[in-house]
Automatic annotation (TrEMBL):
PROSITE patterns: PA14. This is Beta-glucosidase. Belongs to the glycosyl hydrolase 3 family. It comes from Filimonas lacunae. Keywords: Hydrolase, Signal. PANTHER family: BETA-D-XYLOSIDASE 5-RELATED, SUGAR HYDROLASE-RELATED. GO terms for molecular function: alpha-L-arabinofuranosidase activity; xylan 1,4-beta-xylosidase activity.
Length: 871
């Protein structure tokens, strides 16, 4: 009753004055834009039925026609640009952005991404389309989990392994997405995810119970970025994670959602569930008996909005109220936050009042946004090895070869949780832009993982007397009634609705289905393989029996072996349907696998000395909860961290042939590249570089851009250095708790050299002696201008069980050749705050501290300065 009492008091004192502002608001204050979002929400709550309240607590919130409230979708994505939409700007994957150590540029990128989201959203509404999943004003970004283990497939979505770097980047993301703090309306609602202590593995996340996380690891590693986004950026949403923490699912965990988030940190806004996390209470975790009890548990713990694929538990909230498991006043607390968030967006106001609603579609993938994508891709490039300074390459040195599975692979550059760009510059195209096509010899050379190549039998299949497959399409998902079109497909196909492309003329972009049929006569007795990939419902049948079937929300390649007998006919059928709001994708081929013969490649490269090998991984291998596994990969995670063997062997063959080998490694995670340090002359870590990633690679390889990227994650020597994947203790993980890396956190080479002089700590300043200014001389001693990333690490001397060192400040320093800068870096008192076992809280305790400063986290790259933190 306290909520209603406060609202009534407010209206009795000030309501009459405010309500005179508009005639329409006299009877319905929630329609009055002069009131605060909270005041408007408090009024609207009183006008809703319990069933309507429950509907508004679902991520696909239904409209309420009697009040003129439109449909609202809480789930959109903007991980590195608006996701699941076409013709948008696709920026580098977040782990690559983190390598830039440039949070200012991150802010501008997400300011641009929010412009594009607003423009496309309002353009859709003005063209008669409803708000729908993946095109809304609530974006579930950023992912500020700590990338604690390189095996985690979703680590690419994070800003690395360090809490401070993650915090700086995450705050910039939120501010860019939400718009100026003093604006009347939020541009978008950003979301800090996945709260908390979530960093894989993907295969067990729905059942995993983390009951051995120490208080130190919780407060010093897993929570700082969430606290920063709540307190420093006022993020409007926090997403609770799937797994359990100390026996309680995160979305039903009162300690996380109430004690820490709201009471300790003062969070006032929305908690949204990861998709299916509440239904996991009774389907996976078994802590609730059914949907009714799960709904009550989630709401009472503090989860405001439930996301699911299908079957909302929160739809049962009226039943939970009827059973006395939760009361309606508790439900109203959630509605106040939900509705206030929508009022903050201007969702229920006239567009003329909301500046963001009038952003033109001309901003989408405009020249400025393309330039931002290129600039970030350039800054993310991290040079790990450069023997005998083979880089940069000379543009007049003759022909080069560009080989490898990622050389001409556009989707790889897009990363995951991505949109589809207007155009993509692949690595091959980037290098061709420097030398011309005639001077670049290309060969894929090998696959990402498979140690064989497929000789296609597609054209040997027959349908209606013609080579290939007969394709039949329906404009419904059930393959019923009259087909929209029937046609013949003569070659292996790769179909997509990305970019508003139809699978065939007259076939809708959504809610359609298809059947592909052919008869194949086996030329010999052998094993063949079907190569398939689909986003949507996919089923492969051979002679009427199902050989594979799945529902995928992303395209994952699968290899399906099948034994055939010479002369026997096989009826091959593919059934497909587009599902949910995902874009449709389908690819298919089949044939015989044969061993790779590298001698053919070496012969093709005769007379060419320099080979750029573009390999690594892709989001076909690492990603979120993937149903397809390969050797070394499981469910989107990795079971080892080495370069796949087929690529490793290719690099060895190139080196044995006397080539100068430049390895461009594209991955979203750290790799154990010990053999590659021998087989390769240079190694460039290129991450997933976005729509202009290939141009950035070429710019760096040819010296048009001097690399300045630094590793946001530790590159280990081997998997033997890592504890068990499901062990969430930080001991032995990341640069903060181990110092025997192949390439350490913060490491990255340049084409020039920098010397870092002795630091001067000065004196503590401020009213409470709460700030220390370091002055550090940095000199560019090389022959070209460049950028160094100066890093400062802190260690509490008295804390013998704490981290070896922890990043607490960084700054990009750009210098012309031969120049020196006196770089000033501020260390506030909070930079000395660590978890105190005795006080059982994070505090900046007076005492002696070590400051390590330099250009990587490796001890050989750092200098020591001791300081005393006063009382």
């Amino acid at each position: 009753m306290k909520i209603y009492t406060l609202v009534r008091k407010f209206y009795s004192c000030t309501g009459l004055l405010l309500l005179t502002l508009t005639g329409a608001a006299q009877q319905q204050p929630w329609k009055n834009p002069a009131l605060t979002p909270q005041q408007r929400a408090a009024d609207l709550v009183t006008r809703l039925t319990l069933e309507e309240k429950a509907n508004l607590m679902m991520d696909e919130s239904k409209p309420i026609p009697r009040l003129g409230i439109k449909r609202f979708s809480w789930w959109s994505e903007a991980l590195h640009g608006l996701a699941n939409n076409d013709s948008v700007t696709v920026f580098p994957e977040p782990v690559g952005m983190a390598a830039s150590f440039d949070d200012s540029l991150v802010y501008h990128i997400f300011d641009a991404a929010s412009d594009e989201t607003r423009a496309k959203y309002h353009h859709a509404l003005r063209n008669g389309k409803q708000s729908k999943r993946f095109l809304g004003l609530s974006v579930w970004t950023p992912n500020v989990n700590i990338f604690r283990d390189p095996r985690w497939g979703r680590g690419q979505e994070t800003y690395g392994e360090d809490p401070y770097l993650t915090s700086r980047m995450g705050v910039a993301v939120v501010k860019g997405l939400q718009g100026p703090a003093d604006a009347k309306y939020r541009k978008l609602l950003a979301c800090a995810k996945h709260y908390a202590v979530h960093s894989g593995p993907e295969w067990s996340r729905h059942e995993l119970n983390l009951n051995k996380v120490t208080p130190r690891d919780l407060w010093d590693t897993y929570l700082p970025a969430f606290r920063s986004l709540v307190q420093d950026a006022e993020v409007r949403e926090v997403m609770c994670a799937y797994q359990r923490l100390d026996d309680e699912p995160c979305c039903g965990n009162s300690r996380l959602l109430q004690t820490i988030l709201r009471e300790k940190w003062g969070f006032q806004y929305l908690v949204v569930s990861d998709c299916g996390a509440v239904t996991d209470f009774y389907t996976s975790h078994k802590v609730s008996s059914d949907a009714v009890h799960a709904a009550a548990k989630g709401a009472l713990a503090g989860t405001d909005v439930e996301c699911v694929w299908e079957g909302y538990a929160y739809q049962q909230i009226p039943d939970a109220v009827a059973k006395g498991l939760i009361n309606e006043q508790e439900v109203d607390k959630h509605l106040l936050r939900i509705l206030a968030a929508r009022f903050e967006l201007g969702d229920m106001d006239d567009d003329a009042l909301v500046p963001w609603a009038n952003i033109s579609m001309n901003v989408v993938n405009n020249a400025a946004h393309r330039q931002l994508a290129l600039e970030m891709a350039q800054k993310s490039m991290t040079l790990l090895q450069n023997k005998q300074q083979v880089l940069p390459l000379a543009k007049n040195s003759g022909r080069i070869a560009v080989v490898g599975p990622n050389a001409d692979n556009a989707p790889m550059l897009w990363g995951n949780y991505n949109g589809t760009p207007v155009r993509t510059i692949t690595i091959l195209q980037g290098l061709q832009s420097k030398l011309g096509k005639d001077n670049v010899v290309y060969d894929k050379a090998c696959d990402l993982v498979e140690n064989k190549v497929t000789q296609s039998y597609f054209t040997q299949a027959m349908a209606d007397g013609k080579s290939g497959f007969k394709a039949t399409y329906w404009n419904n998902r059930e393959r019923k009634d009259d087909p929209a079109i029937t046609q013949q497909i003569a070659n292996p196909f790769k179909l997509t609705t990305a970019g508003q492309h139809e699978f065939a003329s007259g076939v809708h972009l959504e809610a359609f289905s298809a059947r592909y049929e052919a008869v194949f006569t086996a030329p010999r007795t052998e094993e063949i393989v079907f190569k398939c990939g689909a986003t949507g419902y996919f089923e492969l049948l051979v002679n009427g029996k199902s050989a594979a079937r799945y529902n995928n929300w992303r395209t994952l390649p699968s290899r399906i072996p099948y034994q055939v007998e010479k002369g026997k006919q096989y009826n091959i059928e593919i059934r497909y349907a587009q599902l949910n709001n995902w874009q449709a994708n389908l690819e298919f081929d089949f044939g015989k696998e044969v061993d790779i013969d590298y001698s053919v490649l070496i012969s093709k490269l005769k007379g060419i000395n320099t080979v750029v090998f573009a390999g690594g991984l892709s989001t076909l291998l690492e990603g979120e909860e993937m149903p397809v596994s390969y050797p070394g990969f499981k469910g989107g995670d990795r079971t080892d961290i080495e370069l796949p063997l087929v690529q490793r062997n290719c690099l060895k063959a190139l080196k044995a042939a006397g080539k100068t080998v430049i390895f461009v490694n594209c991955s979203g995670s750290a790799m154990a590249l010990v053999p590659e340090t021998t087989s390769c002359d240079a190694i460039l870590q290129a991450w997933y570089g976005g729509e202009s990633g290939g141009q950035a690679v070429a710019d760096v390889l040819f010296g048009d851009y001097n690399p300045s990227g630094k590793l946001p994650v530790t590159f280990y020597k081997s998997i033997s250095q890592l504890p068990d994947f499901e062990d969430y203790t930080m001991k032995g993980r990341t640069y903060r708790f181990m110092n025997d890396a192949l390439f350490p956190f913060g490491y990255g080479l340049s084409y020039t050299r920098f010397t870092i002089g002795k630091a001067d700590a000065g004196k503590w300043t401020g009213l409470q002696q709460d700030s220390l200014i370091l002055t550090i001389p940095v000199t560019n001693t090389g022959k070209r201008s460049g950028t160094e990333v100066l890093q400062v690490y802190v260690r509490k001397v008295a804390d013998t069980t704490g981290p070896i060192k922890t990043l607490r400040s960084f700054q990009r320093v750009t210098l012309p050749a031969g120049s020196t800068s006196q770089v000033k870096m501020a260390l506030p008192r909070s930079a000395f705050a660590f978890y105190d076992n005795n006080q059982q809280e994070v505090s900046a305790a007076p005492g002696e501290y070590e400051l390590w400063y330099g250009n990587s986290s490796a001890e050989k790259d750092l200098q020591l300065l001791k300081v005393f933190l006063p009382q």
